[in-house]
Structure formats: C-alpha cells, structure tokens
Amino acid sequence: MKKKTSKYNGTQKFILFCFFTIALASLALTVFLLSKAFVVTRDAEEGTVPTTLTEVLPSAEDIKDKITAVVPKPEEAAPELSAEPEPAPEPEEAADPHVLKKQPDEWNLMLVNQWNPIDRNYEIDLIELNNGHSIDRRAYPDLQDMMDDARAEGLKPILCSSYRSNQKQRDLFANQVNKYLAAGLTEEEAELEAAKWVAIPGTSEHHTGLAVDIVALDYQLLDEGQQNTPEQQWLRENSYKYGYILRYPPDKSDLTGINFETWHYRYVGKEAAQEIHEKGICLEEYLAEYMN
User: Alpha helices, DSSP H only, in 109-252?
Assistant: First the structure.
C-alpha cells in the first residue's frame, strides 16, 4: 500500500499557522472595537460621555500643571553640592600695634626700636665732632647750641656716646649678655634682660646718628645717680627747645622697649620735641597721633 505524502513542508505549515492566527486575532480585535464604538455612540446619544476628542484628552494647561507639580522650579531646585566643602577662612592675625605700617616722611621722625629695625640701606651723612664722636650733620647745629647754652649756665655736659656702627652695637650687646650670664642667668634670660638696656643690633637709635648719650663731667656713670646731676636736670627742662627729647622716660618702657635712661637724648626737631615735652609722651605715642 502506498504511503500518502503531504503537499506542505514544515516551514510552509508554520507560515500558514501564523497567517491564520493573525487573521483570527484581527477579527477578534475588530469585533471588540465595533462593540466599543457601539457603546460610545449609545452613551453619546444619552449625553453621558464627551462627543469630541478634545474633550476626552487633557488640556495643555492641565499637562503643564501636572508637570510643574512634579518638577520644581529652577529657584526651588536644591543647590548642587560640591565634592568637598570649602574650608572656612582663617581669621586674620591681628597687627602688632608696635609696628609702623609706614615710616614718617620726615627724616627727623624716623622710628627705630626693637619692633621697627633700621633699614640696612639707610645712608647717613655724618659730621665728626672735636671729641671724636659723630652725629647726623642735620642734627648738629641744634646739639651744639644746646651744649653751649648749658655750659653758659656753668654746667659741664659731655657726650659719652653718639653714632654707632652695627658692629659696635653687636659688641655692646654681647658684653651686656655676658654680664647676665656671669650672674647665673640662662642665655635666653640674659638676652632678654640685656635688650632692656642695650638695643639689639639693628634696632639701636645710635645707628641713625640722631641719638646721643650725655652725662655730667663730674659724674660719668650710667646709673640712677646720673639723673640727680645738675646737667641732667637742666637737660630735662630745656632739651626740647633745641629739638631733643628724653627718649626713654621712666614710665614708657612698655612702649619704647627700653628701661629708663636719663642720659639718652634723641633729635626729633623743635616742633615735635615741644609737643612731646608738653604732653609728657614718648616718640611712639607722638607718632601714633601724628600718623593717624
């Protein structure tokens, strides 16, 4: 008996299956849509549903409101966070009130102390005196007048120190330190104590050529007894008339940085000297007022 052979192969059978499946699905969808259309038409006739597409879809305003409700406005958006927060600025260090921001323009008012060292490039026009001392040439005439007038009063003032080189100041400071070391102080303590009496090299007024140490011929010790001499008493009362001031008064050490020295006089000019004398202030205080 001869076996019956199918006229369709496997691939063709699969294609036919897909075709009939799609056709049935399309038919079912068509029936469903027609039934829905019938229901919508019926409801429209009864006035229960919208009859236009515009009424069915939401308006543009409704869409905008819905979007706005979800997406925040730019100004309401949360700020972006940096990878690392910026460090808080460090507080500025307070300026040292002893330090001048700028030296006075007038040469005779230059401030030199432990907080305001002299400029290394400062040039001095010195005049040498008969006793071998030297001072700034511009301060010489008033100094000579002062010494002459004191002698005319029967006094005997003499200069024991005037201009000093930086090396001379180094030697004086080292000698003072050695005295305190010999007394048993540590090196740090000795330097601190020495600086109260002898200016640290680079901070001495003697290096400006504007400072002089004056003592009595009959009493040449640099100690407390010097203030009791007639020469010092006269200078305390009259030196300002010649443009010189007692540079280190007894109650101004915290401002000048140097203990009371009754023999140390500094040229500042007659106008400044008179105001300093009348107000009972030191050069640091005068410049604080003058520079502001």
Answer: 140-152, 166-182, 187-194, 230-238
